[in-house]
Amino acid sequence: MEAFLHQLVSGLAAGGIYASLALALVMIYQSTHHINFAQGEMAMFSTYLAWTLLQAGLPYWVAFAATLGISCAAGMLIERVLIRPVEKAPVLTVVITFIALLVIFNSVAGWVFTHTVKVFPSPFGAGLLPRNPFMSPHEFGSIVVTLAVLVLLYAFFRFTPLGLAMRAAALNPVSARLSGIRVGRMLALGWGLAAAIGAVAGMMVAPVVYLDPNMMAGILLYAFAAALLGGIDNPLGAVVGGFVVGVVENLMGAYVIGTELKLTVALVLILGVLLFKPAGLFGRAVVTRV
Amino acid sequence: MAAILEVSGLHAGYGAADVLDDVSVRVEEGGITAVLGANGAGKTTLLRAVCGLIRRRGAVRFAGQDISRAQTEDIVRLGLAHVPDGRGTFLQLTAEENLRVGAITRRDRAAVAGDMERVFGYFPRLRERRAQQAGTLSGGEQQMLAIARALMLRPRLLVLDEPSFGLAPLVVQDIFRIMRAVNEQERVSILVVEQNARLALDLAGEACLLETGRVVLSGPAARIRDDDTVRGAYLGY
Question: Contact A174/B84, CB-based, under 8 Å?
Answer without folding.
Answer: yes
